[in-house]
Design a protein that fits this description.
By secondary structure, the protein is an alpha+beta fold. Helix content is 61%, strand content 9%.
């Protein structure tokens, strides 16, 4: 394999390698360094002869950078997504599983992707805007593909008071009057369970309502 020219981006973050067939491979600075090609601005240093297997390394590194840029664009355009969903999008766009994993790992290192932080923000939004309880929020996050470990950590770090949230939902559901009939009370409790609240939280919510 012959390298006829290497171009470095203005910021030095990317390198474009051109071979004898005028094929171009654009790599991140990290992958360029890892592969071990010497950069030179001097045209007299070209062509550079490399083993044929370098073409495969260049192609893989170039595909990885394209995948990274695609994911950055996708997240910017459509908002935070779970790692599972991002991998699915990569497959839909013909990126290999290995390439997707490496690209996602890199973006996680730079905090472009942070499942725990994304889950924590969604927990706050669900609790604030929909008055959902923990169990309903877990279902919603799981349905969006977030990992159980990320969801657990996000709940540990979030500052939502779900007892108070249950009281707000209870007040909303009983704004036209608190049920006195056992059957109606059970229907109300069942509805609160569907919203994701535990029986302890429901009991607390009803006591707050009665005190008011």
């Amino acid at each position: 394999m012959l390298i006829t020219k290497i171009y470095r981006s203005e910021g030095g973050n990317e390198y474009t390698v051109v071979d004898e067939a005028r094929a171009k491979y654009t790599l991140s600075a990290g992958d360029f360094k890892r592969i071990g090609i010497a950069f030179s601005d001097n045209d007299d240093d070209y062509p550079i002869e490399l083993p044929d297997n370098f073409r495969e390394h260049l192609d893989e590194a170039s595909q990885k950078l394209r995948c990274v840029k695609y994911l950055q664009w996708y997240i910017t355009s459509y908002g935070e997504k779970s790692i599972k969903r991002l991998k699915e999008k990569c497959r839909e766009n013909d990126y290999s599983e290995e390439c997707a994993e490496e690209a996602i790992e890199l973006l996680c290192e730079f905090s472009v992707i942070n499942e725990v932080a994304a889950c924590e923000r969604r927990i706050g939004a669900y609790a604030r805007e929909k008055l959902y309880g923990k169990y309903r929020i877990r279902q919603e996050l799981s349905a969006k593909g977030y990992m159980r470990e990320s969801i657990d950590r996000a709940f540990e770090e979030c500052e939502v008071d779900f007892y108070e949230n249950a009281a707000k939902m209870y007040a909303k559901l009983t704004k036209n009057g608190t049920p006195t009939d056992f059957r109606e009370k059970k229907k109300l409790a069942d509805k609160l369970v569907r919203y994701g609240y535990s029986y302890d939280e429901i009991k607390y919510a009803s006591s707050v309502e009665f005190e008011d």
